[in-house]
Task: structure prediction
Amino acid sequence: MARILVVEDERIVAAALASMVASLGHEISAIASTGEDALQQAAATSPELMLMDVRLGDGIDGIEAARRIRRDRDVPVVFLTAFGDRATIAEACAAEADGYLVKPYSDQELHGAIEVALTKHREEKAREQREGWFLPALMSVRAAVVVCEASGKISFLNRAAEALLGIAAAEAHGKPLWEVVELLDPLTRARKPCQTAGRCDAICARELPGSRVLLERRDHIQRLVEVSVAPVHREGEALPGTVHLFQDVTEAHEAQSRLAVSEKLAALGTLTAGLSHEVNNPLAFILANQDFALEELASVRADLTAENAGETAAALGKRLEAVEVALAEAHDGADRVRRIVRDLRAFSKSRSHHRAEVDLAKVVGEAVKHAGEYVRARAWLEVDATAAPKVYGDERQLVRVVTNLLVNAAQALTEGRQDRHEVRLRAATDERGDALIEVQDTGQGIAPATLEHIFDPFFTTRPVGTGTGLGLSIVHGIVHAHEGDLEVRSGPGKGSIFRVRLPVLREAREPAPAGVERGRVLVVDDEPLVGAAVRRILGREHDVDVLTDPLDALNRLKERDDYDLVLCDLMLDTLAGEELCERLEERRPDLKERMLFVTGGAFTPRAQRFVRDHADRMLFKPFDRLELERLAREHVARRLAASGGRGGRARPKT
Result:
């Protein structure tokens, strides 16, 4: 039931209308005959609906009276008129009528008009209440909210959007979004494709789903934002427009970047502290022994050339023996430095390309040779490799994996208490058919907080100077490079179990070329001492030429076809090794398979790509003598076999 004000200047018609309204179950708040009277009655009785005749007597008409009452009291109105012409209907629409009845009308028509007007008004009031709550909520949201029409023109900004975009809502209203701001790629600074006229629609939701972009305002201030764009929906219906949500993450990104830099610096500090001790110790006695050897050799030479040399052969032999010991110790120290550099390179997890069939029983045996004494000083060592399978991989790297795991297990135990502790090493095939290497210790175990980081680079619980924290990181990298898995189970007071799983060898591999025959080798290195060292090593089995100028090497290789192996440094002064290789490939593509590259590290992006693309032909400094000899033999043998032996090759041009 509703309270209804009846406004009709014909008394009989007004009485009949009031009776009809009452019969429909509504209450008559008052009856007015003029526009002025309607204004007074509306103020006095507060009706919920007006039935208003359009044409009233003298004074203001029904349309004007309804307009004023709606303005002051927001009362819905149904107009009653005997005229249904377009002009009258247009006037009623301009007055925001909630209904319109043309006389004469029935009870049913009146009932329908009243119910429609009341329902419409209640819904509008509810919508206004919702919007009255949502608008302050949107204005209070900390993220920037921008609503655009389908054309891209801005129709709404909240306060956060005004601050972020640097423009007031009133000024931005009606402007295309791409005129107010630009969205740029954070790396390339290229404009985002959705920021063009006519494209700020649902396409944006696919192009920028929660991505981070650089927002540039008209005053050229840039902020890093996370942006989400979606079409506007209402009750499942897509409306022509989009909602842009911008979250300013500039400060958070800068803080994250500072934290990342800080963590890297801390890791670098840890690495530097450990390496400074590890490297400086061997360097100290390397230099001391070399100084002694040089001085002693100079003294011996002076004594031998002196006419009055009275030193006996026995005394001279002792002096030379001391020189030999000093040089041997210096060599051991240099080898320690080489191993440290090798560990750093292995930490990069580069894949090995020197792979073959590997017997894990042999791997276990070699690892026990290397670390067995260290382990036995702390625990009883039990080894079981009777059922060890074969895998395809780098034998030396797999030996390093097992050796590191054994050393790691021993470090968890107290030295001198071998009667109380045990380390078990087992190699077998697991239940899944994979190769399994398992190292178990009865040590103190690993706390959960530490367990999360044991494979992190540079992480170590040992004191500074007693390790670099790279051991388990290297193990992790080697295992994954062999397409295997590494897992650890441990807990305080429960010891630890490290399990390495590798694919079992399923098929036979082609053996490496066999046989050793004297070949010809060209060494290209702008460091004369490196070239001389390589000549001394390879010269016992091959004819070795050394060139320090890559342009000379380029010219010689264009003219001669008798080199079985070209050993080229990657970082040369006048012509980089990768460029030398590219030039040779243009004119002599057959030389590609004869080239090996030596590098102490690639620093430029181009060189790094070359190392990655030619990893199977890289030899890293400081290189191992035996490895260099092996590679030279393999290449020479392969070259001679392909060319039909020494007699089948072209002779050098003269």
